[in-house]
């Protein structure tokens, strides 16, 4: 279905990185603070500190701001390294407005295919607008991830 027809359609992005699934998974999760573009995508308007990424369902993904409080980006709902993780996604939003983020890692002959699927736009008051912003935002974010894994 065309996005113009359905403003709540999933955002789906796919990149391939030149590593095995375990390395690609760890780079996306454990090493997230090494490549995430905090200047453009951070909860805080102050210098960021670090990000902690849970390692089990029910654990949070949290941005720790320098000199400030921890800010939860979401909560892991599925954790199956190195194949997939799923989490609620609500940076700077209440949990009731959470969307869902699923990231899958599949080894291929060229490395690992990473598929990001972002759904649940109907839970946000600004769902269609937010969906359009994330559609372009994830391109930039994943570009930083690919650069990290290849550099």
Automatic annotation (TrEMBL):
Residues 24-142 form the Activator of Hsp90 ATPase homologue 1/2-like C-terminal domain. It comes from the Bacteria. SUPFAM superfamilies: Bet v1-like. Pfam families: AHSA1 (PF08327). This is Activator of Hsp90 ATPase homologue 1/2-like C-terminal domain-containing protein. Belongs to the AHA1 family. It comes from Georgenia subflava. The lineage of its organism: Bacteria, Bacillati, Actinomycetota, Actinomycetes, Micrococcales.
């Amino acid at each position: 279905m065309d996005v113009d027809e359905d403003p709540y359609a999933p955002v789906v992005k796919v990149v391939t990185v030149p590593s095995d699934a375990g390395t690609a998974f760890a780079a996306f999760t454990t090493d997230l603070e090494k490549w995430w573009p905090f200047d453009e995508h951070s909860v805080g308007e102050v210098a960021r500190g670090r990000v902690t990424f849970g390692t089990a369902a029910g654990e949070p993904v949290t941005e720790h701001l320098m000199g400030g409080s921890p800010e939860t980006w979401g909560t892991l709902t599925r954790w199956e390294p190195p194949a997939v993780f799923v989490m609620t996604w609500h940076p700077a939003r209440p949990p009731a407005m959470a969307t869902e983020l699923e990231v899958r890692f599949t080894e291929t002959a060229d490395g690992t295919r990473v598929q990001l699927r972002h759904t649940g736009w109907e839970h946000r008051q600004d769902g269609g607008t937010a969906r359009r912003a994330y559609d372009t935002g994830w391109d930039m974010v994943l570009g930083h991830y690919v650069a990290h894994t290849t550099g």
